[in-house]
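The records we work with from here on pair a chain with its fold. Taken together, the tokens spell out the fold as the letters spell out the chain. To see the layout at work, look at the sequence and tokens printed below.
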Amino acid sequence: MFSNVKGKRVFERVVDEIKSAIESDKLKPGDKLPAEIELARELGVSRVTVREALRILELSGLVLIKQGTKGGAFIQKADGPQRLKECLTDHLKLGNITIDQLAEARFWIESIIIDMVGQKARKKDFQLLRESIRRAEEAFRHGEEEKKTDENWNFHDILMKISGNYILIDTLRSINELMRYMMLKIKTDTKISENAFKAHKEIVDLLESGDLEKAKGVNKLHILDLNNRLTKKYLRAQGGEETNK
């Protein structure tokens, strides 16, 4: 079913190979992918590389990972946000858009969402946001990097859901999923995490006090800080080949 991808940009090529099989109907929603060791043998890569590729596919919504004796990686039907994310990814690879433009779009959409949250949020919503921050900090203390990163993005996902506008939700979720994908290629440092926790706490406090303009300002600095660090590290990572064998 798959072509040998050895010698290429490995885990991204594995992702592309599986996506190609989905697009050509060789794999359909509900199909179970071969076990990691079998995929690694068929694709000519390591199990670590396969695991990274599956993680990306799971984040993008194309694959569902189930645990247990009947578990494995299952193909899911692509939804609207996934298709938009794929479009943005293609434009990014072709150089039609930049990381700076993604950050700019994210800021303006989140600014609209902050205005809507200011009108719609209730006490329970602020509790959900603070609980998300607590879980991220706890994961950080325990060295659970992926869990911490996921929870930091979940904070923004909660904000989207409070808005209740699924046009904004799907658009911003696509942008955020792409940025999350890029973050998986780099090792975030302690400063990024500390800045994120601080910004998230300030945003919740300002939203609850009704100071929406200051909340947008804090969010803008938060996005710019992450964007500057991400751009440098992502571009540096792009220059090297995958070495996990």
Notes: The longest helix spans residues 212-238. DSSP finds ten helices and two strands in the chain. Confidence is low (pLDDT under 50) at residues 240-245. Residues 105 and 175 are 8 Å apart (CA to CA).
